[in-house]
Write a structure and sequence with these properties.
Elements: E1 4-7, E2 14-17, E3 23-24, H1 28-33, H2 57-67, E4 79-83, H3 89-103, E5 108-114, H4 121-132, H5 143-155, E6 165-171, H6 179-192, E7 197-204, H7 215-221, E8 224-228, H8 233-247, H9 256-268, H10 273-290, H11 296-316, H12 320-334, E9 341-344, E10 347-351, H13 352-365, H14 373-385, E11 389-393, E12 403-407, H15 411-423
């Protein structure tokens, strides 16, 4: 049988058909032998920590200075790191912790945790204890037992073992529900220790998270703060070029203009390096499937995919009635028989009143009670602010003054994501 293969644009895979049109499923071995422009995709992952963090030398040095006392067998400073998403906070912290462990002694014990997972004081102490004692039961103990066990370990368990310098790294610290209790407990633990110490490295996107702390906790912290500023376009170009050498078999597969475009787009998105790397990864996957280079087109297409993914993630978490409103608007947009729309700058807008009527139809069909039109006006404002719809006030040619709305994304895709969310798996 003669097999005919061709790449399907945008799917990132090869469909192979036999002479009679029967789909041939390749083996993993076949797929492994397919030529790819990638050498190591992992280097474009947000979890990858490069050997050298570009443009964060000053921040890394400041963090190292704060933790330096641990190498002198003294208590490290409490450090708090702030900055937007993708500004290098986590990667820089991991870099410093790795340096500290490699240059220090066994007495230095850092414990890293993501507070989206370890989101209570109890879970944080559990994580600390299980890190150094995996056999210790993770549930069933009171908080006071966990606390005493932690202190015993830091002091050396009374078995002539040297005391420890425990450094608790709390990423996304602001996600902890009982944050004030956690901070107070970890800071005050040093008052109950005869030897050894407990220090905090807190990482947060929110500079004002300390508002949640009461005066006692704030006064006992004595912390040092580091602010990570957003990357500018030139810095993002440098970061992308660094990763390109590691990610691709030949760095010439990426056009210079493609690098500049990805950096410019990410710079406009609050200097988010993660977003720049995501664009490069998606653009590379598109180029792989199209058997071409990474050009401006691949970057623009990757941007569209990334924006849609982000939009659909937002849609799936919206309140039910806002989702139904989007369903109504997508239904109108897909109805070829619907003519009461307004052309504005080459774009088709729909009357908010008509959309509200369609919304009421869907809500009643689901056996629910529609929200009032006043609520719907609030929804329009909120959905517009999220970038899911565009709304404008009507001009000439429309009787009275009304709001016109349109989806910011393809109606068919919006309808599918709303239907799948509302109906469940």
């Amino acid at each position: 049988m003669i097999a005919i293969s061709f790449a399907v644009e945008g799917l990132g895979r090869r469909e192979v058909f036999g002479k009679k049109g029967v789909l041939w499923v390749p083996t993993f071995k076949d797929m492994l032998t397919e030529k790819s422009i990638f050498r190591n995709k992992e280097t474009l992952s947000p979890h990858f920590v490069p050997e050298h963090m570009l443009f964060r030398e000053n921040e890394i040095r400041t963090l190292m200075e704060g933790l330096l006392p641990a190498l002198k067998d003294q208590k490290p400073h409490n450090m708090f790191i702030y900055g937007g998403t993708g500004t290098g906070k986590t990667a820089s912290s991991r870099t410093v912790i790795e340096k500290l462990v490699s240059e220090g002694s066994d007495r230095i014990k850092p414990v890293y945790m993501n507070c989206r997972v370890y989101d209570t004081r109890y879970k944080v102490l559990q994580k600390c204890i299980s890190h150094f004692n995996p056999d210790f039961a993770k549930t069933g103990f009171s908080f006071s037992v966990l606390y005493e066990r932690l202190l015993d370990w830091v002091e050396g368990d009374g078995d002539h073992i040297e005391a420890k310098r425990l450094i608790v790294v709390l990423d996304e610290l602001d996600m902890v529900k009982d944050l004030d209790s956690l901070i107070y407990t970890l800071v005050r633990a040093n008052d109950d220790l005869k030897k050894g110490s407990v220090s905090i490295v807190g990482i947060s996107n929110k500079v004002n998270f300390k508002i949640r702390l009461d005066a006692r906790s704030r006064s006992s912290l004595c912390e040092r703060e580091i602010v990570f500023q957003p990357y500018n376009a030139m810095q993002l170009q440098g970061i992308l070029k660094q990763r390109i050498k590691q990610a691709f078999e030949d760095d010439s597969v990426v056009d210079e203009s493609g690098i500049n475009l990805a950096a410019a787009i990410a710079s406009a998105e609050n200097g988010d390096a993660r977003y720049a790397l995501l664009l490069l990864l998606r653009a590379g996957e598109l180029a792989d499937s199209r058997k071409t280079r990474i050009t401006d087109k691949e970057v623009q297409d990757a941007r569209k995919q990334a924006e849609e993914d982000k939009a659909f993630e937002i849609i799936s978490t919206l309140p039910e009635h806002q989702q139904i409103f989007l369903l109504a608007l997508s239904s109108l947009s897909l109805d070829s028989q619907y003519h009461r729309l307004v052309e504005e700058g080459g774009e088709r807008f729909y009357l908010s009143g008509e959309t509200y009527e369609k919304y009421c139809h869907y809500v009643k069909k689901m056996g629910k009670e529609p929200r009032t039109s006043r609520w719907m006006r609030e929804y329009i404002v909120e959905l517009d602010a999220l970038g899911l719809i565009t709304s404008i006030q009507s001009g000439k040619g429309v009787r009275g003054r009304t709001t016109l709305v349109r989806l910011a994304y393809e109606p068919e895709k919006v309808r599918k994501i709303v239907e799948s969310t509302l109906t469940g798996p």
